[in-house]
Design goal:
about 150 residues; alpha/beta; Ribose 5-phosphate Isomerase B, Chain: A; 5-stranded parallel sheet; binds D-ribose
Length: about 150
């Protein structure tokens, strides 16, 4: 079963707790990187994204107030593709088109039941090699251009 890292700042903690329980119910192995606990979203996102980049998790879910700060921060880690999605179609395309290993959501912009549905779509979709492949390769080339050392 896939290993999923999760994390939140204080604003995202209640939704993250709910989604963590939802994932565990569905049999996923969940590693919880915490609820902010005084840390801001860039701190939590960096820790989780670095673990994904090291290959310690197949995917990660990050929750803050809007989902936006978590995505901005996670995308600064070389090799990580994080996408914010609050609707099922975007969540599905984040996998199929963008091969996003990280999904971010905002506790202040989506109802918990809707967030579970979005999460389902992201979990069940896989990257579709084909026309999207060279585009994702170009994303990886951007890492080479702007973050050649991973620093
Ligand atoms: C609170 O710090 C809020 O700004 C944060 O949770 C997130 O929404 C940022 O993108």
């Amino acid at each position: 079963m896939a290993s999923i890292a999760i994390g939140a700042d204080d604003a995202g903690a209640p939704l993250k707790e709910r989604l963590a329980a939802y994932l565990r119910q569905r049999g996923f192995q969940v590693e919880d990187y915490g609820n902010g606990d005084g840390l801001d979203y860039p701190d939590v996102a960096a820790e989780v994204a670095e673990a994904v980049a090291r290959g310690e998790h197949d995917r990660a879910l990050l929750v803050c107030g809007t989902g936006l700060g978590m995505a901005i921060a996670a995308n600064k880690v070389r090799g990580v593709r994080a996408a914010t999605a609050h609707d099922p179609y975007s969540a599905e395309r984040a996998r199929k088109s963008n091969n996003a290993q990280v999904l971010t959501m905002g506790a202040r912009v989506i109802a918990p039941e809707a967030a579970e549905k979005v999460l389902d779509h992201w979990l069940t979709a896989e990257f579709e090699p084909g026309p999207s492949s060279p585009k994702v390769a170009k994303l990886e080339a951007l890492d080479d251009r702007y973050r050649p050392t991973g620093a």
